[in-house]
Amino acid sequence: MATSVKMYRLPKLASTPTVVDLPTCMYKMSPINKFASTDLASSYYGSTTCATNYVSGPPGKIGGLAELEMRQEAVLHRLQCLKQQLDKLQNNKCLTDQSMPSMSVVGAAAQSSPVKECCSRIDVVTHHREVVKKLMSLQDELNKLLRSIQDLSWEIGTVHDLVIAANPDRPPYSLVLLRKLLKNVGFPVYCANHVHSSVKKVSESLQKTFTESPEGDRSKHSLAFTLHWKDVSSPSLMVNPLHQTPISGEANIIRYVSRLFPLSSPYNYEATGTFTSITETDNLLDQLTNQMICGNNKERQAVLRLLNGRLGRASWLMGDKCSIVDVMAWSAVRQTGSEAGAPANVSKWYRAVSNLAGLESSLPQENNIVSSKNEKNQTISKNAGKTSNGHMDRKGLEQLLKKLNMKFQVQDHEEVFTVEALMKNVSPMSGLHMKNLFLKDKKKNLYLLSARHNAEVKLNEVGKQIGVKELRFGDESVMFDVLGVKQGCVTAYALINDKNHQVKFLLDSEALDERHEYINFHPMSNAATLGISPANLKTFLSHTGHEPTLLTFK
Description:
Blueprint: E1 34-35, E2 38-39, H1 41-45, H2 49-55, H3 64-91, H4 114-118, H5 124-148, E3 160-166, H6 174-184, E4 189-195, H7 204-209, E5 223-229, E6 236-238, E7 247-248, H8 250-258, H9 269-272, H10 275-293, H11 297-313, H12 324-336, H13 344-357, H14 394-403, E8 408-412, H15 419-425, E9 432-440, E10 446-452, H16 459-466, E11 472-473, H17 476-483, E12 503-508, E13 519-521, E14 528-532, H18 534-544, E15 549-551
Helix pairs in contact: 2-3, 6-13, 10-11, 10-12, 11-13
């Protein structure tokens, strides 16, 4: 075993002292328990020698260990005193019959002994309840006072102009209802709208809906809604461009307008509601924006179920009276066309809100953008069944297929909004079942994508196959305007309604495989499924004038 050997020894470069004097006190603090000339140390540490030495005694009189022990005893003694105070308070639960003596504060020295004050026979719980009761009473009086005060922001002779930019594809119908509600509380609203060059001509019916002058001249109104139809993704509100940034989103616009109602109005939910109701209102407004207006079909159906459940417990979404939430929900349902096929409670509520707004609830969504697509095409489908807007419906489709001598299979089932629900209802049907998506690109070109029900569809990959960027879901109002179908009912058969060939058809190449007996789509309605052979599908597309772009999916 090897042993270590010293190679060399280093001489000392500096000599160090054998004893190092370390300070016993790093930092000396002045007494903190003195007030003026009075020493309050006994109130904190007890009247012990340890306290006196610790607070004001010169250092070095008591050893370190002994000092710590005495300090510990002082702390334990104080804790024992506090424990006795707590026991006395817990044992005393009732007020004495005698009235409480008035307590006067002489000075800081009188407060230095909390033991004497706590020994009085006071029911702390009852006293706390009385204080809370008085605070609530004062709060009620303050609310009554605020409600009786005239809103100082309304100056006579001044028109408060709210300039709102909105897309005609998604009209903010909440403004129509808010206008009516403000008029009911004594604030008639002057409403006007203008068409920006970024959009096509807006229909006269839509402009008329957002136009009103109840007092005649604009200067006779205190409030005005000026609506600009623009190509924007979401509505925005501007009051003063010099001192304000735009307020984006219909829910935030509703929040702003709600503050214009009188303080006693239930529509001014921040002034009349509790913390719980205000939070619930804000959550519902955000949920309606994110899931109903900006969400997909599955999210919208979830919101409809939520609304149906709330309306099953009360006449309105927030109780027995119409609220701001009802205004937002009604606008969202009307924008997305979800009133068609909505649950019973939602349909009843929707009609009530529509009557309150002065609009007919039975009419389909506004045909907003005017173009030449309303020209009738003289084809074989001229005498087929059509909807009130001139679009072919299921009856007209079946008549057309019979005239074209196309064999088809059809099965009725409950309304379905997802592929999973569809497959549960069409299991007896043979052939390939298709799912359909209505899309648009960055340049607003329209596409109808039909793929087999189990295909993995990624819009980015689809865009690469057809050479377009930013492929995303199209607007439902445009889909109804061009194809004549609403959400959940989109189908390749709806191409028969695209007379001007605005939609490019993207088809899964699997659908033209002759090995499949039938290729199944919805027949303009999601309450049925209709299938034709791959060969007849080619004939049908040739009849509509839509040459399919074939895609491949995993």
